[in-house]
Each structure stands twice: as C-alpha cells, then as structure tokens.
Amino acid sequence: MRKRLGVVVPYRDREQHLAEFLATVPSFLSESPRCEHVTARILIVEQVPGKPFNRGALCNVGARILGDSVDYICLHDVDTLPIDADYSWPEQPSMIVVHGLKFGAELARKLFGTVVLIQQAQFIAANGFSNEYWDWGFEDVDLRERLLRCGFRPGHREGTFRSLPHPDLGSNPDGTP
Ligand code: UDP
Ligand code: MN
Fold this sequence. Notes:
Layout: E1 3-11, H1 15-31, E2 38-46, H2 55-66, E3 72-76, E4 80-84, E5 94-95, H3 105-108, E6 115-119, H4 120-125, H5 139-149, E7 155-156, E8 160-163
Parallel strand pairs: 1-2, 1-3, 5-7
Antiparallel strand pairs: 3-6, 4-8, 5-6
The protein binds uridine-5'-diphosphate and manganese (II) ion.
Manganese (II) ion binds at residues 77, 79, 166.
C-alpha cells in the first residue's frame, strides 16, 4: 500500500551541508527500490537567528506542518547522507543509520537520533519532542524515553550513511557527550 513520508530537516547556518543534502536525498528516495511504494516530501525547517539552536522544537514544527498529509516522518540531520539506507514504512520507531557516523556502530545502536523514522501517529502519541532542549544534545534521548513510555519499541535498521564534517558542538570524537 502506498505510504506518504515527510522528511523533516532541522536547519540553521549550514549552507554547504544543505546543498549536499538536496543534491543527494531527493534522488536517493525517488530511486530507492525499497521506497517504490512511498511518496516523499522534504521540509527544511530553519530557525531564525538570536537564540541557541533547538533541534527538538524545529522537528516538532515540521511534524505539525506536515500533519495528516503524511503517514510517517523522518527526522533527518542535514549532515548525514545515505549510502545504503531503508526509508520505507516503519512498524516501530527506527533509527536507520548504524554505520558511517563519526563514532562506531556499537554506540549508534544505543542511540536514537541523527536519522529516524516514526509513524506520525506514534510521534503524536508521544507528544513529539520536548521544546526545552536548547543547544546541543539530549532531545533525542528524551524522545526515545517518551516513545518507550507509550509502549513503542524504538530500534535500528543497519543503514550506512556518510557524515559531513563540522566543528563538534557537544560531543567528543568517540561520540560521548
Ligand atoms: N543543526 C543545524 N545548525 C546548527 C546546529 C545543528 O542545522 O547550528 C542541525 C543539523 O541538521 C545537524 C543537526 O542539527 O545535522 C544536529 O546537530 P550537530 O550536527 O551539531 O550534532 P552532532 O553532529 O554532534 O550530532
Ligand atoms: Mn552533525
């Protein structure tokens, strides 16, 4: 059955990354055999200057704008681009990148961020992200906790992505905060 995907990209001040994202992700989705039955839209949600970045709030705005025009959403960092990835309909919330992050697969399997798929109804049931995480980190940990408390089972798909380089705002090279 055809499913409607909305890709939400929280964004500010990473022009080069956005150019690469837009040169990669739309064609990847339209050419992906796993997404043969998926109609995808991409929504870049840009934060105005003046306050610290708030990734969770931007994703909430994107999900709200898409509303019931989509069946599931992909919360997608702008700097993480697919090489081998499965963006198809998720029965459970799924982080679809395990390989190719700046840290190893073992840590990736413990996280729930970077590029994740969630049914719109599950995201709404969990009340989305908290809006209270300003600057780097932990909004994704909080979302995973919210999903677990709703009885969902956030998991992983073994995707391979490439990470575009940028100065680290909050994590060490091994991925620890
Ligand atoms: N982001 C952005 N501008 C910023 C900070 C973050 O656009 O100033 C977005 C962007 O999509 C980025 C994501 O938020 O990929 C996660 O932030 P970041 O890459 O700094 O986190 P990390 O690489 O440490 O996970
Ligand atoms: Mn990054």
